[in-house]
Amino acid sequence: MSSEIDTDYVIGQDNIQTNVGPFGLDFHNPVFLISGLSVIFLVLFCLIFNEAASSMFGALRPWLTTQFDFVFAIAMNIFVLFCLFLVVSPLGRVKIGGKHAKPEYSYLSWFAMLFAAGMGIGLVFYGVLEPLNHTLSPPLGVPGALDADGNLADAAVAAQAARVGMAATIFHWGLHPWAAYSVVALALAIFCYNKGLPLTVRSAFYPILGKHTWGWPGHIIDSLASLATLAGLATSLGYGASQAAAGMNYVFGIEATTTLKVIIIIAVTALALISVLRGLDGGVKLLSEANMLLALALFLFVLIAGATADIFSIFGTGLVTYVSELPALSNWIGREDTGYFHGWTTFYWAWWIAWSPFVGMFIARVSLGRTVREFVICVLVVPTLVCVLWMAAFGGTAISQMVNDSYMGVQQTIANWTPELSLFAMLEQLPMTTVTSLVGIVLVLVFFVTSSDSGSLVVDTICAGGKIDAPVSQRVFWCCFEGLIAIALLLGGGLASLQALAIATGFPFAIICVAMCYCIYRGLSTEEV
Amino acid sequence: MYSNIMVPVDLAHLDKIDKALRAAADLARHYGATVHYVAVTAAAPSEVAHNPAEFAAKLDSFVAAQASGYGIDARAHPIKSHDPAVDLDETLRDAGDAIDADLIVMASHAPGFAEHVFQAHGGYVASHSDLSVFVVR
C-alpha cells in the first residue's frame, strides 16, 4: 500500500523474549518495566503513606480540574468539532485498513464492544442518579425542582428543571466523551491498519515525532497510557466491588463486609481470566453481546413498567434542550455554576480523557474495514443516542417518581451520596424488584469483567510494543495484577488516592489528544480513497 | 498413503521449525503428496509484515523456496485471525478441514507445566483433530 509509512522500525525489535519458569514472555523494553514498576511503586506509596498520598493526589485532581478547567473544556470541544469536520470532509471516505479492507465484526457485536470497555458500568450507576441530581440542582442558574425547604416547586419550574437536568446529563455522556474516544481510536486505527505501525499509542504521533516515536518520547507516552489504564481499572474494580456489595446489602440484606468485597474482586478477576483465555471472540465479544441483551431487557422493562409517557417526553425535551444549551454548557468563560462545571463537567472530562487510551485502543482493534465517516458517525452518534435513551428511561422514571408520586427514595441516595443505591431505590417502586435488582447487579459485574478483560488486552498490547500475538500468559498476568492492586488498596486504604492520580493523567492526555487530531489529519491526507 | 500434508508455519520463528519442514518435505516426496503451508496472522501489523497482503507475499516466497529447495508440490495458505495468540489452535484445526489434509506435520515447543494451563499448539491439534498429526520436537 502506497500510504504506508516507511520506517525501519520492526515490531518487537525492542522486545525482550524470555521464559520465566514455564511461561514464555515477550514484552517491550522499557515500557513494560516502567509501567509495572511505577504502578507497584504508587500502590506501595498509597498503602504506606496513606495520609500523605491522600492529601497529595486528593488535592491534585481538584486543582487540575479547577485551575485548568479551560484546558479540558477546549480540548473536548476540539474533539467534537474535529469529529464533525471528519464526517463532512472528503477525508471521511478513507477506509480503515485500506480501500479493500472488510469489517471484522458485525454492527451489533461492534456496538456491544464499544460499551463493554468504557461506559457500561457508569451507565448502570449514574443512569438513575445523575438526571435526578441535575434536576434537583440544575446548571446555568436554572432553579431546581425542590425549593429550599425540600418541597416540590410548582409544575412549570419542575418541568424546566427536569429538561435542563436531562440536558446537563446528556452533555456528560453524549457527543463529548464519544468524540474523545473517537479521536484516540481513529488515530490508532489509521496509524496501525493503514500506515503499518504497531498498534500502540505512540504510533499515532509519528507525524510529529518521526523516528523519536521509537525512542523516549514514545516510551513516555506508552508508559503513561498503560499506567493510567492500570490505575483506572484497578481502582474502578476496587470501588465496583464496594458498590456491588452495597447493592447486595440493600437488595438481599447480605452484610457488605470487606470479605464480601474481596470475594467479589476475586470472582470478577476469575471470570475475566476465563474470558482472557478464551480470546477476543470467545471471551470479551461473547460477554459484551450477552450483557447488551441483558441491558436491553432491563431497559425495556423500565420503559414499560416505569413512567413510559414521561420517559418518551423527557427523551424528546431533554435532547432538544441539550442541542439548544450545548453552546452554554460547552462554554468555559465566566461560568457561575462552578459546582456543576468543576464538580461534574470537568471531572467527567478528565475521567473520559484518562480512559481514552484504553477505550480508544480497544475500539481501534475492532474497527477494521469501516470508513472514517462510518466510524465517526457510529462511535459518536449511536452511543450518544443509546446513552440518551438509557438516561431518559432510568433517570426519567426517577424524576417522575419524585415529581408525580412524591417518592423521595432516589433523592435520599443523592442526599446521602450513595450513588450505588440509586438504581435499586428506583427499581423498588416498580414490580419484580428482586429480579430486576439482581439483573442490575449482574449487569454491573459483567461490565466489570469485560472492562478487566479488554483492559488486560490493551495494557498487554502496549507493554508488548504493539505486538498483538504476545503470549496469553501476559494478559493473564495483567488481569491478576489489576485484581491484586484492587484488593491491596481495598484492604490497606488508598483507592481514592490512586483513582485521583489516574484521573489526573487526563490532564497531559488532554493536550496529547489534541495533538492527535493534527496527526489524524496528516495521516488521512496521504490516504487513497 | 498421504496426499495432502498440512504444515503450520510461524514466519517469525522459521529457525525453530527447520526439523518439521524437513520431515514434511521428506514425507511429501516419499508419498508424492502436496504440502500446504499454513500461516496465521492478524490484520494488525506484526513483526513479520505490515499488513495481510505483505504477509501473504512473504508466505508465497517462503513456499516457493520450499518447493524449489525440496523439489515438492507446495501451496501457501495465509489465514487471518482476530486474536491469533488465543485462536491459533482452532484456526489450524479449521484450516486442516478446509484443505482436506490427511496429515499434519508441525513443530511443538518443549512441553512443560505451562501447557497444562496454556495448550501447546501441537498438543492441542493432535488431540482435537481426526487427522494424523506428526509433532516434531
Task: Give structural notes.
Chain A has 529 residues and is an all-alpha fold. Helices cover 75% and strands 2% of the residues of chain A. A two-stranded antiparallel ribbon of chain A has the order 1-2. The two termini of chain A are 12 Å apart. In chain A, 58% of the residues are buried. In chain B, helix 3 crosses helix 5. Chain B has a five-stranded parallel β-sheet with strand order 3-2-1-4-5, with helices on both faces. Helix content of chain B is 44%, strand content 23%. The A-B interface holds A 1, 4, 10-13, 21-24, 97-98, 101, 104, 192-193, 196-199, 277-283, 365, 368, 466-473, 475 and B 12, 42-47, 50-51, 53, 82-87, 109, 112-115, 118.
Layout of helices and strands:
The complex is a heterodimer of chains A (529) and B (137).
Chain A: E1 15-20, E2 23-28, H1 31-48, H2 50-67, H3 69-88, H4 107-118, H5 120-136, H6 155-173, H7 175-194, H8 206-209, H9 216-252, H10 258-277, H11 279-305, H12 308-330, H13 338-365, H14 372-405, H15 409-415, H16 419-427, H17 433-463, H18 472-492, H19 495-504, H20 506-525
Antiparallel strand pairs in A: 1-2
Chain B: E1 4-8, H1 18-31, E2 34-41, H2 52-70, E3 73-80, H3 84-99, E4 103-107, H4 114-117, H5 121-127, E5 132-136
Parallel strand pairs in B: 1-2, 1-4, 2-3, 4-5
Helix pairs in contact in B: 3-5
What structural keywords apply?
heterodimer; A: 529 residues; 2 strands; 75% helix; B: 137 residues; alpha/beta; 5-stranded parallel beta sheet; 5 helices; globular
Query: Would you tell me the structural class of the helices and strands of chain B?
Result: alpha/beta
Euclidean distance between termini CA atoms of chain B: 23 Å
Number of strands of chain A: 2
Low-confidence stretches of chain A: none
Question: Based on CA inertia axes, which overall geometry of chain B fits?
Answer: globular
Residue fraction in strands of chain B? 15-25%
Helical run tally of chain A = 20
| Residue-averaged pLDDT of chain A | 90
Percent of residues of chain A in helical segments? over 70%
Strand tally of chain B:
5
Strand content of chain A: under 5%
Largest Cβ-defined interface: A-B, 38 and 22 residues
For this entry, what is the oligomeric state of its chains? Answer: heterodimer
**What are the secondary-structure elements of chain B, in order, as H or E?**
EHEHEHEHHE
Please state how the strands of the largest beta sheet of chain B are arranged side by side: 3-2-1-4-5
